[in-house]
Specification:
Chain A: This is Sugar phosphate isomerase. Chain A: InterPro entries: EboA_dom. Chain B: Keywords: Hydrolase, Metal-binding. Chain B: One of its GO terms (molecular function) is metal ion binding. The complex is a heterodimer. Chain A contains 13 helices and no strands. By secondary structure, chain A is an all-alpha fold. In chain A, helix 2 packs parallel to helix 4, helix 5 packs antiparallel against helix 6 and helix 6 runs parallel beside helix 8. Chain A is elongated, with a radius of gyration of 20 Å. Chain B has a single domain, classed as TIM Barrel. The radius of gyration of chain B is 18 Å and the shape is globular. By secondary structure, chain B is an alpha/beta fold. The chains are: A mainly alpha, B alpha/beta. Chains A and B meet through helix 3, helix 6, helix 8 and helix 10 of A and helix 2, helix 3 and helix 10 of B. The structure holds zinc ion (ZN). The site of zinc ion has 6 residues of chain B, from loops.
């Protein structure tokens, strides 16, 4: 089951700075809805639907703070499937990629889009890592990849609370506990601090964090 | 002192450079796409490079409180390789992006028919996308190259007030100024301009529509040249206002023509102080 989107059209319209932005938003949504009924003709592999160009330009037309929400609604309105999501992620700036990742739970049923999450987790951009560890990753990332995602968050300073359902997935995970202990030992051996979040996960794995 | 380096290839630079630039007063940079020293052989290599200029490099710059934008294009050297020219077809996908503040670097390298075609096509793309253009003038046969560049600009639908002619020097500055375009000077050890010659040009031609950059890249270059020019200007008796005009207000005005310049440095969402770049990566 996909999840309901985090924003409705009305929520987003209310956030927009002025009527110009709202008119742009309405036109972009209409454009995306039209595209949903028409598969793209492809004289060039690089040709984009106009709504896809608007998807890229959303930040400067609607305000950068609203761009994620606007982009998510465009994806929903266009009924973006796996091919479209993969294309927009592939051609996307970091901000566009974040928007695709955040929209996954509302758009993709099943694990077919997990390659996008894995791609983001290979990056070193903490904004992408943060967007990757949302509810879609909680539902579909396999155990090994999920443990590495948690470790990467600790390593790169992404707050643990950004990891969707981490308390649920970490509970009783002995292998995760081992990885965390080893990481803590490595930090301690180097005379460095152990992140506070590490102790929080370790507790849940069933291990009592000792003198980390 | 606030400094905007309007032409620097940070992809080739280390985090030490970012740190030193910040300490010297650099608060904003524009990174033009160019060639990487090693020729590319397929469009996908360009797309990965564009992705870096639109994602990874702004992320790195933000760690040091530096706003990072880019200009995208097929550069003149690689425009001569038919394996790379399909990049022109993909540019419309990239030129709409929020971090892109100009089309560039375009212009001439060896002045071939393929370069003519790529320059004209990309000036048109700039006009179509409401973007200004950063035009590199050739290092060899420079004055003839400048004249040919200005002719192509005049034939294009992009107004001259939206074109920056870069890598100018004593032999090209006068004709470039007469063209009505913006004037860019790269201050680079051994080649291009140096600080004292730059000051002499500013004395002779004024500070209006003049931009100074380090053009630092993978060659022997210095990302602090912008600051060194500012210091040389002060020593030569220019006031702080003239320094601010050349090293901040002029680049802000030129790239501001895109309507996309954001000088507040966006922080990556929801992060603590530390991150892997500062910690030395994985
Ligand atoms: Zn350059």
């Amino acid at each position: 089951m996909t999840q309901p989107p985090a924003w409705t059209r009305g929520d987003v319209a209310a956030l927009l700075p002025d009527d110009t932005a709202r008119a742009w938003f309405d036109e972009a949504l209409a454009d995306a809805a039209r595209a949903a009924g028409t598969p793209p003709a492809a004289p060039s592999p690089y040709l984009a639907h106009t709504w896809e160009l608007r998807f890229a330009a959303a930040g400067r037309h609607c305000g950068h703070r609203n761009a994620d929400a606007v982009r998510a609604l465009l994806l929903i309105e266009a009924r973006a499937g796996l091919g479209t999501l993969t294309r927009l992620y592939g051609y996307g700036s970091a901000a566009e990629r974040r928007a695709v990742l955040r929209a996954l739970p509302a758009l993709v049923e099943g694990p077919h889009a997990v390659h996008l999450v894995e791609d983001a987790l290979r990056s070193n951009d903490t904004g992408l890592v943060l967007a990757a560890v949302g509810p879609y990753a909680a539902a579909h990332l396999d155990a090994h990849a999920w443990r590495h995602a948690v470790l990467k968050c600790l390593f790169t300073g992404v707050p643990l609370d950004a990891v969707a359902r981490w308390t649920h997935r970490a509970a009783g995970d002995g292998e995760l506990a081992r990885m965390l202990r080893d990481y803590a030992a490595e930090r301690t051996a180097a005379g460095r601090d152990v992140p506070d979040d590490l102790g929080r996960v370790l507790t849940l794995t069933g291990e009592v964090p000792k003198e980390l | 002192m606030r400094i905007f380096d309007p032409h620097i290839h940070m992809t080739s630079r280390t985090t030490d450079d970012y740190e030193a630039m910040r300490a010297a007063g650099v608060r904003a940079v524009v990174e033009p796409s160019f060639w990487l020293g090693q020729p590319r052989t397929r469009p996908a290599s360009f797309f990965d490079y564009f992705d870096a200029l639109l994602g990874w490099e702004p992320f790195r710059a933000a760690q040091y409180g530096i706003a990072h934008h880019c200009t995208l294009a097929l550069n003149p050297k690689e425009a001569n390789d038919p394996r790379c020219t399909p990049v022109l077809d993909a540019l419309p996908r990239y030129l709409v992006k929020d971090g892109v503040v100009a089309v560039g670097e375009i212009g001439y390298d060896s002045m071939t028919p393929a370069e003519d075609a790529a320059l004209a096509a990309q000036l048109q793309l700039a006009a179509d996308h409401g973007l200004p253009a950063l035009v590199h003038t050739p290092h060899r046969d420079k004055l003839a190259g400048l004249h040919r560049t200005v002719d192509v600009v005049n034939e294009s639908s992009l107004p001259r007030e939206r074109v920056l002619l870069d890598h100018l020097n004593e032999t090209t500055v006068k004709d470039a100024k007469d063209s009505g375009c913006w004037l860019g000077f790269s201050v680079y050890p051994d080649t291009k301009m140096d600080e004292d010659r730059m000051v002499a040009i500013l004395r002779a031609y004024g500070t209006e529509k003049v931009l100074v950059n380090s053009a630092a890249d993978w060659g022997k270059s210095d990302p602090l040249k912008t600051r060194k020019v500012a210091d040389a200007m002060i020593t030569a008796g220019f006031g702080e206002d003239a320094v601010d005009q050349v090293l901040w207000r002029n680049p802000v005005a030129f790239y501001g023509l895109s309507g996309r310049l954001r000088l507040d440095v966006p922080q990556a969402d929801g992060l603590h102080e530390g991150n892997s770049v500062l910690r030395g990566g994985e």
